[in-house]
Amino acid sequence: MSAASAPAVDTARAWETVLQRIESDLIAGALTPGDHLPSERALAAELGVGRSSVREALRVLEVLGLIRTQTGSGPQSGAIIISRPSGGMTALVRLQVAAHGFAVRDVVKTRLVLESDVVTELARASGAAPTPALAPALEILDAMEQPGDELTRDEFLTLDQAFHLALAVASGNEVIAAMMAGLRESIEAYVRVGASVLPSWDDTSTRLKAEHRAIVAAIEAGDPELARTRIRDHIETYHAETNVSSIHPHREDT
Amino acid sequence: MSAASAPAVDTARAWETVLQRIESDLIAGALTPGDHLPSERALAAELGVGRSSVREALRVLEVLGLIRTQTGSGPQSGAIIISRPSGGMTALVRLQVAAHGFAVRDVVKTRLVLESDVVTELARASGAAPTPALAPALEILDAMEQPGDELTRDEFLTLDQAFHLALAVASGNEVIAAMMAGLRESIEAYVRVGASVLPSWDDTSTRLKAEHRAIVAAIEAGDPELARTRIRDHIETYHAETNVSSIHPHREDT
DNA sequence: GCTACCGTGTGGTCAGACCACATGGTCGGA
DNA sequence: TCCGACCATGTGGTCTGACCACACGGTAGC
């Protein structure tokens, strides 16, 4: 039913067995965030594989945002289980965009779909009771509006990204938050290029700030439909203005 | 302004330089799907790094669904650029679920959000003009209803997954399709466990088939709201019935 | 003409050797 | 007693070289 006989099973490549071992330890609860993995040399000896194979598996886990590695000795050294899905999501989406697997247009559209749901859920929750989870997002808005301290485009965009991410986090769905972060970061280069060619940045940033406040207002008013409409307009307007969707990772010339 | 002097810049780890090189080649169009990467040994020599570092980078690309490797010689050997985004999504989400980064509940919820948008878009498009893109999905439904040929639960679930994926593909947004596939696959183990404990599989499968037809009917009728409602009920009912969301990767006992 | 063979290049793996680094203990002096 | 310098230890990061299994493609022999 399961394995035919005794042999085989070993058909997987060495680094895959390492990955499987770690995954099963995670599922079994033998490994939880904060724990240290055994050292590469110990893992290699324990699993009967070479250290290079262990390293290939750890590299994958690192890129996927599951572990953090550090040299040296002490409590902070070695490979430690973390859980930072957004990092892996970013790398995944960005490379897929680069490889033509994803169109920038679809990335923007997907982000819109996810974020629409985020604000809808937040508005629903806020209609029932005040939402303290929104506090981080509000702080970011305050930071964006500091009088007398003009932000550069880059600084503004950084805060803008943080605001949208804060909304996603506030909704409580980590999967959506990670995906949104990944989608956004993966096209960040295009967004920044788009912002740099805008004729009047002052006008744009002023409008964006107003739209952010309006979105939050709709959420706090407990109006899902309004919040949804506003986030949609917010995203679509910006991307239409900067023409981000038409930017193509490929250079057709030369 | 940028680099202090001549040195440094090399601060990135060796395997990262390999990754960056490949990414930039992808963006520049020097590498497109179907192309062969240079051999590991050539890449190592060219970039001035060890072969093991090259391998770590290639391993990442493989897990992320960007390349396919094959031993031997000939046209099919070596590392070839592909673009299978769902593979990377699956690995990422599955491991994050295992590491407690993602809750199964949130995965299901996110899938629901994405799929709601898929059927909404399909219904809108279908309202304007017939949608030939739905053909693959319809074929799968036919296969699920073959009379006299009772499908096992596993076979049924495989077709079920294919149906939902076909809908996503029909919507034309590859990012959403890939993410949905990844989300679905990552919790497939839990879904199958849930199905295996259902009291009356015949009743369930009959109901699911009817629901599938109803969803398609709503799409073809060009009724976005109805399609949205039906897909939501379809997914929520099933997951409530099988209690998938409550399945926890951890075993609290022993 | 066909078959069997073998050279060649590929990824897959392992072993061993360094390196830089961060820690934590030890030893010496104040 | 206290404190600073020192160094042994263990970690990840990297490179080198060596095999292996495999798949192709040409070649020699039938």
Folded structure, characterized:
Two copies of one chain form a homodimer. The first copy, chain A, has 254 residues and is mainly α. Chain A folds into two domains: 14-83, Arc Repressor Mutant, subunit A (Orthogonal Bundle), CATH 1.10.10; 87-246, Four Helix Bundle (Hemerythrin (Met), subunit A) (Up-down Bundle), CATH 1.20.120.530. The first copy, chain A, contains eleven helices and two strands; from the N terminus they run H-H-H-E-E-H-H-H-H-H-H-H-H. Chain A has helices at residues 14-28, 40-47, 51-63, 85-98, 104-128, 135-144, 153-170, 174-186, 188-196, 201-220, 224-242, and strands at residues 67-70, 78-81. In chain A, strands 1-2 form a two-stranded antiparallel sheet. In chain A, helix 2 packs across helix 3 (51-63) and helix 10 (201-220) packs antiparallel against helix 11. The radius of gyration of chain A is 22 Å and the shape is elongated. The N and C termini of chain A lie far apart (58 Å). The relative contact order of chain A is 0.11. Chains A and B meet through helix 1, helix 3, helix 4, helix 5 and helix 8 of A and helix 1, helix 3, helix 4, helix 5 and helix 8 of B. The structure holds a DNA duplex (30 and 30 nucleotides).
Could you give a quick summary of the protein structure above?
Helices cover 65% and strands 3% of the residues of chain A. Chain A is mainly alpha-helical.
